[in-house]
Amino acid sequence: MNEVLVIGHRNPDLDSICSAIGYAEFKRRTGLPEAVAARCGDTNERIDFVLQRFGVPAPRFVADVSPRVRDVMQRNVLSALPDTPMAEALDWMDHKNLRVLPVLDRQQRCLGLANVFKMMQFHLPGPDRLFESRRVLASLQGVARTLGAKLIHAEDPDQEEDLTLMIGGMSLESFQQRLHEYPPRQMLVVVGDRHDVQQLAVEAGVRCVVVTGNLDIREETIAAARRRQVSLLLSPHDSMTTAMLCRASITISHMIDEDFLSFRDDEPLKSAQRAAQQSYLHAFPVLGEDGTTVGILSKSDFLKEARRRLILVDHNELSQAVHGADEAEVIEIVDHHRIGTLMTSRPIYFLNDPVGSTSTIVADGFFRHSVPMPKEVAGLLLSGVIADTLNLSSPTTTGRDADVLKRLEELAGVNATRFAEDLFRSGSILVSRPAAQAITSDCKEYTEHGKRFSVAQIEEIGFTQFWHSKTAVMEALQAYRTQRGCFFAALLVTDVTRRNSLLLLAADKEMMDTIDYPEIEPGIFELNDVVSRKKQLLPFLTHCLDQIR
Fold first, then answer.
1. What's the CATH number where 409 sits?
2. Kind and range of the H or E element at 123?
3. Largest interatomic CA distance in the chain
4. Which end of the chain is more exposed for a tag (fewer CB within 10 A), N or C?
């Protein structure tokens, strides 16, 4: 929960990935050690080429940053095994001020919850259940464990039994009379150093005699117990305490409420909170992917601050941000696109610089603050600048992009021109991926005048691969528009060698009629000298929207 995710937009391009890695490194070196590079979409062949070239792993994949149960649950779970005596469980709960206790098997799977109310119902029965106050439901081993007693002689000590408690604190005659009221083999007699009562109980063949106060037991009594198969325990406590603890030696397995509500640790906190609010329970086991118990969640845990902290790079609009960003705390934005509609609850650091690449901004931060830049980071930022400016040939390119690229060449030990040729040859996405994935590999959504639309871009060396897959690409674009409910869906296919593009448009006729570029096929327009989505295509499309408002 303490980490800060430095993350680009959905369907990340090379600049988004490289600037996230670079800015996370910059933040760690300037006082934010918890900064972690992340991505909210798949890499592609071009991104993989660059990461492998400079020996850097892909940023961590994070599909959703909305708070999860794991973000607020209590991880150090105090739990009991089914054979834990109730006295021990109550002692733990008292020290930790708990009302419920998860009961787990030895594989850490939750069997149910033991709660104080149910324990007290057993330990302190009402007036209509007075006989229950004499009931000892336990094994003799469990009784000895609870008492801290010494087993002088034990017959079948591990067998759980339902016994009737009797305290030998009366005259011998009265005790003898009471002995006949219950089956002897179901009786557990608690007595002090009343040797006559001890002997009488043993001769009667009761199940167990518990001698209290660590008082002396005569040898003839022990011998008689062995002969009559009567178990003998020596308790360190007085008779009253011993009797109470005998009752509390019942195992927690009898106190389990199996009707419990559990949550997965990756469940969205909002849905868990709704379910918890409707439940009469106060605590909920949290299960991991394998079904084992990894935490406990109480209703008060929902009051904890669980918002993740984000630094957004290469975008500033919620429609392009990782899912759940509206529930996270955005603490910084570093971008080079138009300013969108993202709102924050407090002032933040927002660096929006009209250069050709976010990687330029990140690299410039290293240089201006004299922060040492690792060679591999220089290589990544160089790649981001080359990709977003088409190696300084895009109309979005500025003099600062060129200056930064020159310095990055020296730091990375890479010739930008030769590297750009390798980079743009590193794979056609139209060949390596199905059309439905290809059109979303670098896709951004926008909202203008209440209309949502998408603009994607694919960079190719020539248009040959596009014409081979034209039909599938057009069908995928139409399907994407329908699925996302967009007013239109646009795809810019750019030839990075000739600096020209094709615009594919899935839209109604009123939008199609606003496009004044040559339409070479239905829904396909020729855009000579257009290579920038940000500076050339997007302003043109928003102008078209203005005409049909």
1. 3.90.1640.10
2. helix 116-123
3. 116
4. C
